[in-house]
């Protein structure tokens, strides 16, 4: 980026001027150059001690274009007077044609007030043979000095839109200890040759400019959501959680709803809340899928295993039986079973095989828990990924967002344990004093909404949903009766908006998101504010 416009060599001009006079004023000597350009040139010279400068803030009165034309041609009232003087007599309705509408409007009244002209019937005639155009004089004075000491008059001129007042910075510049008529040639690199020849001893090295800003780097940037996601991943990892494979957005109704004991008539499955996929028309029945197994082993190769390693399988190990699982789910909905009365409605296979954009990542948790039933043992799983809901988009809702989800399976878990766990978890992101409110989810009992007190907003905010998965969900999978599973979920967007001060979710995600804003956002830390 060129520092100086129009190929002007400002630094040289400054040095030349200082050769002819001891000090210069940027406002007088360089009236047309922007303050930023002057400052850049001065800094270049000052960093070499070639000049010294002081800056002064001041207010300047500046004429508007209308005022400038008054200085050039006279005030409106003067033009009216002058027109009457030349014609001797002007019919009032002719005046706008002669002097222009605006001038006639403003000028006529003032010319009356000044007793320069008067009415004679329907015409204007002269009163004064000679007049002093004091408005013009006043403005001319302001144009020259850029000031006006009479605050009342100045205010009046501002109101009449003849003068604006702006802040200006003026630099007073004088020679520095190393002043010279030209910037001497400066060496920027110390070379092996200079050392060998000894030239470095007399070389004129260019000084470092520690005030210079670095050039902006054209590099990629992580989205704030991804930065906050990483913080949450770190919290989960620090608590012994393993990440679930959530890379597929489309799932069957079976995994998204039925396996979670969500009845097929549930309003959430309605077109209102769920995006259904029409092509392909339906999913395969749940089955052991070689592609999924391959993805899973690739994932597990680089991190902790999701499930027990094959060589350490316990005695209870039994192969997953998808046929049985399918039958169990049908039974628990339709007739009841596993100690439950069920919902007692005709359960439809087709409904279960409809494809949906997953509405929650709990679909994946369910799949993982079913896998866990192969070798049930205490486990902690989490995921942070996208979910989709057919919602009206507004400042706080999008049709797609990210869910943070955690699942803990163990024997002898209690609701108090879940509350304690959540308190620990949210404390790690700086939220203390949680409150829990009884809630309803088809797949957890009891269920609790989680509230946190937001100091900035000074109110309680719902920050998540949680519960203990129902036996109707866990037992059909083949998990032991005495195994309990906690689950909880929250959105990634809400803490991100709180951390980055975003009030409209559409500025964070979607087509309204400004890429420059993303680039400019700092890293984040989820700790106490
Ligand atoms: N699936 C729930 C939601 O979408 C979150 C949740 C997960 C609740 C697990 C309880 C247990 O809000």
UniProtKB/TrEMBL annotation:
Tell me the CDD domains matching this sequence: PheRS_alpha_core
Q: Where is the signal peptide?
A: none
> What is a single molecular function from GO for this protein?
phenylalanine-tRNA ligase activity
Q: Does the keyword Magnesium apply?
A: yes
Q: Does the keyword NAD apply?
A: no
Enzyme Commission number(s) from the entry: 6.1.1.20
Localization per record: Cytoplasm
Q: Which Pfam families match?
A: PheRS_DBD3, tRNA-synt_2d
Which biological process terms from the Gene Ontology are attached to this UniProt entry? phenylalanyl-tRNA aminoacylation
Q: Which key words are in the record?
A: Aminoacyl-tRNA synthetase, ATP-binding, Cytoplasm, Ligase, Magnesium, Metal-binding, Nucleotide-binding, Protein biosynthesis
Q: Which domain of life is it from?
A: Eukaryota
Which EC class does it fall in?
ligase
Report the residue ranges that make up the Aminoacyl-transfer RNA synthetases class-II family profile domain in this protein. Answer: 227-522
Instruction: State a GO cellular component annotated for this protein.
Output: phenylalanine-tRNA ligase complex
Family that this chain belongs to: Belongs to the class-II aminoacyl-tRNA synthetase family. Phe-tRNA synthetase alpha subunit type 2 subfamily.
Report what the protein is called: phenylalanine--tRNA ligase
Can you name the source organism?
Massariosphaeria phaeospora
């Amino acid at each position: 980026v060129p520092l100086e416009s129009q190929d002007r060599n400002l630094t040289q001009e400054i040095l030349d001027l200082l050769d002819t006079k001891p000090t210069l004023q940027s406002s007088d000597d360089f009236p047309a150059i922007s303050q930023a350009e002057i400052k850049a040139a001065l800094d270049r010279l000052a960093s070499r001690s070639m000049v010294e400068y002081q800056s002064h803030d001041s207010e300047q009165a500046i004429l508007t274009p209308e005022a400038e034309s008054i200085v050039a041609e006279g005030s409106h009232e003067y033009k009216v007077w002058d027109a009457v003087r030349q014609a001797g007599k002007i019919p009032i309705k002719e005046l706008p044609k002669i002097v222009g509408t605006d001038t006639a409007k403003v000028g006529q009244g003032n010319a009356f007030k000044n007793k320069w002209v008067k009415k004679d019937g329907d015409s204007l005639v002269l009163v004064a043979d000679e007049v002093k155009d004091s408005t013009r004089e006043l403005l001319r004075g302001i144009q020259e000095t850029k000031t006006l000491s009479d605050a009342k008059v100045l205010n009046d001129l501002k109101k009449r839109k003849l003068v604006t007042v702006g802040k200006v910075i003026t630099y007073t510049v004088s020679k520095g200890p190393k002043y010279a008529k030209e910037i001497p040639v400066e060496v920027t690199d110390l070379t092996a040759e200079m050392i060998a020849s000894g030239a470095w001893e007399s070389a004129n090295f260019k000084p470092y400019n520690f005030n210079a800003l670095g050039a902006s780097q054209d590099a990629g940037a992580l989205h704030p959501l991804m930065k906050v996601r990483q913080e949450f991943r770190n919290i989960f990892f620090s608590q012994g959680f393993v990440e679930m494979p959530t890379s597929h957005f489309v799932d069957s109704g079976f995994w998204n709803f039925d396996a979670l004991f969500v009845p097929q008539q549930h309003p959430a499955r309605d077109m209102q809340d769920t995006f259904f996929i029409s092509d392909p028309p339906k999913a395969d029945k749940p089955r052991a899928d070689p592609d999924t197994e391959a993805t899973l082993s690739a994932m597990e190769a680089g991190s902790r295993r999701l499930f027990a390693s094959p060589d350490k399988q316990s005695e209870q190990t039994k192969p997953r039986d998808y046929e049985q699982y399918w039958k169990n789910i049908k039974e628990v909905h339709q007739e009841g079973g596993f100690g439950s009365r069920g919902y007692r409605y005709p359960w439809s296979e087709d409904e279960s095989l409809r494809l949906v954009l997953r509405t929650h990542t709990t679909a994946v948790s369910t799949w993982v828990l079913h896998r866990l039933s192969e070798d049930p043992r205490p486990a902690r799983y989490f995921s942070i990924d996208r979910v989709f809901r057919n919602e009206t988009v507004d400042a706080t809702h999008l049709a797609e967002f990210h869910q943070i989800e955690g699942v803990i399976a163990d024997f002898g878990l209690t609701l108090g344990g879940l509350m304690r766990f959540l308190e620990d978890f949210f404390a790690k992101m700086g939220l203390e004093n949680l409150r829990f409110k009884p809630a309803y989810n088809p797949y957890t009992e009891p269920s609790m909404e989680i509230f946190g007190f937001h100091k900035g907003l000074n109110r309680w905010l719902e920050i998540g949903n949680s519960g203990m998965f129902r036996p109707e969900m866990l037992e059909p999978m083949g998990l032991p009766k005495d195994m309990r599973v906690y689950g909880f979920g929250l959105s990634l967007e809400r803490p991100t908006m709180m951390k980055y001060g975003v009030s409209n979710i559409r500025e964070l995600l979607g087509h309204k998101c400004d890429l420059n804003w993303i680039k400019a956002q700092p890293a984040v830390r989820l700790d106490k504010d």
